[in-house]
Amino acid sequence: MKLWDDVDQYITDTLVKPDAALDAALTASDAAGLPAISVSPAHGKLLWMLARLVNAKRVLEIGTLGGYSTIWLARGMAPGGRLVTLEAAEKHAAVARANLERAGLAKMVEVRVGQALATLPSLNGPMDLTFIDADKQNNAEYFRSALKLSRPGSLIVVDNVVREGRVIDAGSRDASVLGVRKLNELLAAEKRVSATAIQTVGSKGYDGFTVALVLE
Q1: Which of 14, 132, 134, 175 is 20 to 30 A removed from 207 (C-alpha atoms)?
Q2: Residues 5-34: pLDDT tens digits?
């Protein structure tokens, strides 16, 4: 919807401001033919703020794409922080590495290539903040792994959890919708976390994200 796009642009122009490294990351991702599914600038700044709020020194990202959200997260880390980002496609990882190098963040970010479910068991925690933005059918498994790598006070953020409202369709056969519903069932039963989900509209359409606080 054009109004959503216009409001998003107004928010970006007013509160986010232009940034050469972030703009270059999007341009490079587009030139490489990556899908235009990076978080919005406003959402990216929220990730930066969350990293700052928890004074994140260890950050995990599941789903790198071209590294746009990675840049936001890395910039939000505490001095000396370290970020590990997992990407299934080598093509995407190569673009992300170049974007991180251009942004001056390459030394604090490790891009690991491979299927995340295979890579996650090799990681050591605790992670102060985890951002999950990969294939949605595996959301619940990604969350379980993130929880194992967390500590009390850690945040786990999961993107794209509303699916244009289709998340309420209990009879859906869409793998992404089923993945989100499975995640929600897990969150509802998991006593070690407290979670909520926020609906969003904007340049990325109608969707939303989940934030879970690890309690124990």
Answers
A1: 14
A2: 999 999 999 999 889 999 999 999 999 999
